[in-house]
Amino acid sequence: MKNFLSRIWLVIGVLCATSLAYANNLQITNVSVPNDSTITFDVSWDNSWRITATTPNNWDAVWIFVKRKDCSDTRWTHVKLDSAGSKHAAGNPLTVQGVKDSIGVFLLRQTDGVGHISSVACTLRMQPLGSANYDFQVFGIEMVWVPDGSFQLGNSSSSGYFRQGDVTNPFPVTSENVIAVGSGAGQLTAVQWPPATNIPANFPKGFRGFYCMKYEISQGQYLAFLNALSSDQASVRNGAPTTYRHNTTGAWPNLQTTVPHRARGFMSWQDLLAYLDWSGLRPMTELEYEKVARGPVTPVSGGYVWGSSTIFDVNTLTNDGADNETVGGSPTPGSGLANYHGGTLPAAALIGPFRVGFAAGAASGRVEAGAGYYGAMELSGNLFEQAISTHDAAGLAFTGLHGDGELAGPPLTGRANVTNWPEAAQTAYIYRGGAFHSPAGNCQTSSRVRVFSTDATVTQNTSATVWVNGALTFYDSGGAGGNYGACEDYTIIFRSNCDSPIRMQINSVTLNGGSGTACGSGWQTDRITIYDNAGASGTILYGPGTGPTGAYISTNVNNAIAFRFQSDNTLVAAGWQITVSNDYGTCYNVGTRKPNTGGRGVRHLW
């Protein structure tokens, strides 16, 4: 699919202002309110498409929502629009789709076509506001439509992948009905972190059609959000990052950035949910992530979101920081472009996120642009996609309700407040798709290597990164009562999800000390090695070998401990029970941020 990718997806049209603030090619201008129930504006964006006669059978759109404030006040509140699309008007070639909760509308092409949308006049019907003097802001977010239909979860070569219970085949999602979880035929499970229970009918699975944000949240977009909050809400949600290619200057309500088109990291789970609630959207689930990335096609072994199993790391930029920032290099044909670096970091100036949509051009197809099946960008690399996890009961309670445009006040100031959103459950989400510093495998569509765990059990036999909130019990692959297997070789990196060290209490460990048949590179005895590092190298805290029980603590700047286990091909034993923890009480106080988290939201078409 060509000519379908524009550069960024936030714009703000402002009434009662002297200048227009916008990002890249989506523009909302000439905002006017002729009466207390009508708002008008002009909209433009580049590289729009609607393709329904052939695959991918979808289109792009702009989600429009309106905020207003009394001219004597500083607080912006959400404006409800008429729920019927027919009550609104847009010039050719656009049409308007309404939504039942009246939180916003979608602008999209009426018929199939490809090309730029140039200064189209739009008129929206607001619910009456009453007599007052108001300022208005009109916000726009670029979206892609993901149509109804079946798809498959997982493949047999990615870490932690979903699979059918009795085989390693991908699992088909054919409806929004309950999905049975287990090890039997026709059931869903996963190599690691399987769903906590059967997946309820109300949990969004990706079969039903929905709109998904075209891009990750940009720095300009997030600051516009902060500037439209009350001062106490903004202080809770503002991490004011200035590292890893982030830039924030000024003070609320005039926060600014010199790189508004660049993706925004330093977002906690609560930051993301607050932004989505305020926008009238919702978080995606990890099942929906795979639908957006892969579409209806059969999974490719080791495949990335652009449909091939090869990836190219972009390490050069042209016009860095500008709205036309692009990447260079000579990728192997069939390789998608991604900002991931694979563990070998480039010059410091490039360590961090790039412009959203950085790989796209007017003539780029899906692979060249590193795009998902339906046109969503940066699903592999740049920043992680935070999604609702199936591994936690709080995540499975999610029913897909949308935000209402408003955030909570005291005592939960600045937080999302939507029923059944796991806003306070720090174990209910998962990182998908990799980030700018990830190894290539973490960027694969099916890869599930960063699950957040607290008061949970981890039984492991594959390499992974586990982010820790609180305490968890870590067992060998045999679990609490079984033996580990032969020829196992994996590294688990336990990382603290806040600025506190990882603690590891080895409660019991039983390895077979005999000399067995060699595996892999030649080890002939079972051995554990624990490193004070975010990888299997550097200072050794424990081993190699059986070693004593006892307590160990990380001292490295990454707040990480790497645990490597190797077994021979002959003799096995009971393994270990280890408690892994951090200082959970300090994890989610105000201001705690991680530099590599991003986010994306979705909305069903009611």
Describe this structure in words.
The strands form seven sheets. Strands 1, 2, 3, 4, 5, 6, 7, 8, 9, 10, 11, 16, 17 and 35 form a 14-stranded antiparallel sheet that branches. Helix content is 7%, strand content 31%. It is globular. Residues 1-12, 16-24 and 585-593 have low confidence and may be disordered.
What's the helix and strand layout?
Blueprint: E1 10-14, E2 21-22, E3 27-35, E4 38-51, E5 58-70, E6 77-79, E7 89-90, E8 94-98, E9 105-109, E10 113-125, E11 134-146, E12 151-153, E13 162-164, E14 171-173, E15 188-190, E16 210-213, H1 219-227, H2 231-237, H3 269-279, E17 282-283, H4 286-294, E18 311-313, E19 317-318, E20 326-327, E21 336-338, H5 366-369, E22 385-388, H6 393-396, E23 429-432, E24 450-453, E25 456-459, E26 464-468, E27 471-475, E28 489-496, E29 503-510, E30 527-531, E31 540-545, E32 550-553, E33 560-566, E34 575-581, E35 601-604
Parallel strand pairs: 18-21, 24-26, 25-27, 26-28
Antiparallel strand pairs: 1-2, 1-11, 3-4, 4-5, 4-10, 5-6, 5-9, 5-11, 7-10, 8-9, 11-16, 12-14, 13-15, 16-35, 17-35, 19-20, 22-23, 23-24, 27-34, 28-33, 29-32, 29-34, 30-31, 30-33
